[in-house]
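Researcher: Sequence of PLP-dependent aminotransferase family protein follows. Predict its structure.
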Amino acid sequence: MSVAIGEWLQQWMQKRSGEPAYRQLYRLLRQAILEGRLGPGARLPSSRQLAADLSVARNTVLQVYEQLAVEGYVSAATGRGTFVEDISHDLPVRARPVEHRQGAGPRAAASGPRLSERGRRLMSSLGYSDRQYGAFMAGVPDVSAFPARQWMRIQNRHWRMMRPELLSYAPSGGYPPLRQALSEHLGATRSVTSHAGQVVITSGIHQAIDVAVRLLCDVGDRVWIEEPAYWGIRNLMVSQGLEVVGIPVDAQGINPRGHDLLHPPRLIIVTPSHQYPLGMVMSLARRRRLLEYARQHGCWILEDDYDSDFRYGGRPLPSLQGLDEAGLVIYAGSFSKMLFPGLRVGYVVVPERLAGPFASAVAELFREGQLITQSVMADFLREGHVTSHMRKMRSRYAARRACLIESVHARYGTALRIVGDKAGLHLVLALPRTADDVAICRTAYQRGIMARPLSSYYLLPERAQKGLVLGYAGVPEADIPNAFTVLADVIDTELRKS
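Model: Prediction complete. Tokens:
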């Protein structure tokens, strides 16, 4: 028996010579025991003999036998040898064939458990891209310009101090000095009214909205989003089992009317300072009307302030939260556009009565950490590096925006309209209603150019306008004309088909 095992193992290990000997031997013996080729009570060769048969170190065989013994496949007795254990009682019972029943096809049982209905809806509307940088990826800043030297200096300082508490889980709400610094920064730059206890550190706006939905909405509750709106927020709502209602926007922002006003939502999600993706600013009258409607009907409002720091031709606009006197607005933001997306540091400013639940929910559900990063971020903010970096990047992004607009006009004149170019990191190139913006983006992607189809941001296809969402922040100014030429060639080809 021992010689046969050794010869069999040697034959199969030679076929898999690229795999380390330990992994090969462990896997083959384990598989033989599970399949019954080495039955209960079978004696394995001695470690010395098997090592010689396989031309491997004896320690390799000993390690494999020890691992198999720890996992319960074999047992070893000094002076007697190593024997295969009876594991039949540990194996799962094979399910009997499922009888055919109405509504269950012949492949239903074999397919195994399926995704939930919510899961299938989510998978059917994915919008992420495997490429996240280059022309004309929307929502991505120029990460090459990040002031890494200043960041590393602060980071090294914190590592030298080596405080153990910064290597553990984050306290409820996040790193206190960062919460305080953010409260002061947002008050000065965005007219956000808060104290440090109302600021909760998150990994980004997605997480902030996820927590808001978990705490404030039940399955089936109605949520208003803008129409069009960021697809990631829409899909997050769907995955939580909410009834998502798209409210059209006009030149003054979200504009609920008629039937919608008769059915108040539990939560309203808006981008008042820079609507995404169309770029309009919610007027003061519309803001006041929305706040009053929420007060009368007991609605929560989530203000997604994703990139309002970048405006061309004026100061950033005050927040909706700063006008809220009823404590109904939840203000969410992040450093993804200001610094770099991979940082994964965001924040939410909540009404006083939600401060405790929000901080506790983030700690309970996500067990946040990254306190070293949060501590560096606090100093980075307090020392003025964020402000100086933003000042520099506004100038750079303004030049790139102008270059892209010039490239569009040089190719199309006034034939194609530019929308939403007064702020942020992207603009929209409007296309004729007959254009297939999805096909244009697909072909452009194959040629190394990224663009988002405007129609994919609409909840209802019959409302969808056609266009391309083009990000310019991460594209060097010198590269923009050539990159747009490639895109324009794709646009022209597709428009001739429509």
